[in-house]
Amino acid sequence: MEQKVALVTGGNRGIGYAIAQELIDGGYQVAVTARSGEGPIGSLTVQADVTNSPSLDAAIEQIESKLGPITVLVANAGITKDTLLLRMTDQEFEEVVDTNLNGVFRVVKRVIKGMLKAKQGRIILIGSVVGLLGSAGQVNYSATKSALVGMARSITREMGSKNITANVVAPGFINTDMTASLPEDVASKYKEQIPLGRFAEPTEVAKVVAWLASDSASYISGAVIPVDGGLGMGH
Predict the structure, then answer these.
(1) Buried b / exposed e along 11-27 (16+ C-beta atoms within 10 A)
(2) Is 28 a catalytic site residue?
(3) pTM (global) more than 0.90
(4) What is the dihedral of CA 46, 38, 33, 114, to 10 degrees?
(5) Rg, the chain, Cα only
(6) Which one of the listed residues 17, 28, 141, 190 is annotated catalytic?
(7) Phi and psi for 74 in degrees, rounded to 5?
(8) pLDDT in tens, 84-115
(9) Which fold has domain 5-225?
């Protein structure tokens, strides 16, 4: 069988890197976009910025010319600019929205035509537990992650009959460079709020994404799958 082609945005580090590796291990042809750095060995890394439409046009053209039509999209690229609401500038809000929300739209819009031609597609948006739970100091970030739920469900209603699914994976605290830099007392305080009592490994998120991309999840769409150790229960 022909290998499916998957695109992971922001696949050069952290959760995105782990997702790209998991998909490679699962037999996919994998491309990653990155502003700098490289994806895992075996992936095709293309330079692109999700806030820059021409760079995305060039990246997707390059990917599809080398690997074929993209039928799995993992929209993972994102940024944070955390600060309390009263201190947050218009620019800090708008930059996060432009990357985390507008950037997802730009990528989805550019791959959806290939999925329609292929008569199949998996769109997996990487959200966050704070998208529904909320988080002080993250009005901008949590707003974008909440919006991805509405986006996935609207795509489901538009594209479900075309054999294209759209889901959100909502990670909680993950062991990445960002959490590694937390002071020990702060990390311990966060872990006390998590019923499982620990942060997740990036591979634990990656395996859920790979499952959603697989045929085993062919009848799941418009769902929010939490990978948060129970932190956001009820939300």
Answers:
(1) bbbbbbbbbbbbbbebe
(2) no
(3) yes
(4) 70
(5) 17
(6) 141
(7) -115, 105
(8) 999 999 999 999 999 999 999 999 999 999 99
(9) Rossmann fold (3.40.50)
